[in-house]
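Backbone geometry tokens:
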Amino acid sequence: MEKQQKTIVAILFVTLVAVIGLWGVDLSQSYSMVSELTNDPQPHIGSEVNTMGNIKNGTLQVTPGVITFFLVDVEDHVSEIEIEYTGELPASFAEGQGISLSGTMVSAQKIEAHQIVMGCPSKYTE
């Protein structure tokens, strides 16, 4: 009986940790590719969007209060969209880096981002 009680306690503990860990996480968030947003922008304009891509080399402009750059699609490497961001820059923010972001798509060519998360650097290089 004691082994069964330990198993139940362990399961409850794991469940509690999972619930606390996911507290406040919006699991309904889905990410649209840059190409999806730019090829069919109408349903997204004026809406909150989540996307990911690479910061296009040569486009990063940091001025007091505003950071702008172009985000390139990670799949087709051609589609791109302008990003304007007014928050704090993540530590390793640089051109060519992979990021994910959340923001409002204000036009077919532009997202006003309010959150940027840096992608994890790869342990493997080509």
User: Anything to note?
Assistant: The first helix runs from residue 2 to 22. Residues 121-126 have pLDDT under 50 and may be disordered. The helical segments are 2-22, 34-39. Residues 86 and 93 are 14 Å apart (CA to CA).
